[in-house]
Amino acid sequence: MIEQVKEVLMNNGHIIKAPYIPIPENVSFVHQDFSNGFFGHVRLLRALEIAQLFNIMETQATSKALINGFTKVVKDE
Questions:
Q1: Which residues touch 44 (CB under 8 Å, ≥6 apart)?
Q2: CB distance 65 to 14 below 8 Å
Q3: Which of 1, 59, 74, 76 is 20 to 30 A (C-alpha) from 48?
Q4: More confidently predicted of 14 and 54
Q5: Where does residue 51 rank: exposed (0-12), middle (13-18), buried (19+ CB within 10 A)?
Q6: Where do the structural domains in the chain lie, given as residue ranges?
């Protein structure tokens, strides 16, 4: 059922496809503290963080659509 909801939402333009993250040509290592963004240079988002943010947004859009659909179908007592 979730896949059907995602397909309808994608067809209506309410959600988009997952972002494409290209595979880097070379490997680079981080030589800084991850908490450095609060006080100094801001680091870029990692691919895992981008995927998690996208998954959260997609889940919220799907949940909102399901709740909206259920409220239209439910009868008041």
A1: none
A2: yes
A3: 1
A4: 54
A5: middle
A6: 2-73
